[in-house]
Amino acid sequence: MTLRSVDDRTYQIIDCASPGAVDELAGLTVGDTVSVTLTEAACRGNGWRVIAVDTACAVVDASLVA
Fold it and tell me: In the chain, what are the domain boundaries?
């Protein structure tokens, strides 16, 4: 999954910290907005791990892109 921030940075999501985060992200469709907490994943390349997801956020940090 790729997330794009409001300042046009892209984040390749390769891991989630919990099954709940996986479920929240799985329910999104292209164009949905979401606020996420990310940490760099231990991998080769630019991978990120989702720590927390908030789909009912007032301030949008990232939007899902295809």
Answer: 2-65
At residue 30, what is the residue type? V
What is the rounded distance in angstroms from the CA atom of residue 48 to the CA atom of residue 39?
Answer: 6
Res 63: pLDDT: 56
CA-based R_g, the chain, Å? 11
pLDDT tens for 10-35 read: 999 999 999 999 998 998 888 888 88
Long-range contacts of 50-55, Cβ-Cβ distance < 8 Å, separation of 24 or more: 50/13, 50/15, 50/16, 50/17, 50/21, 50/25, 51/17, 51/21, 52/17, 52/21, 53/20, 53/21, 53/24, 53/25, 55/24, 55/27, 55/28
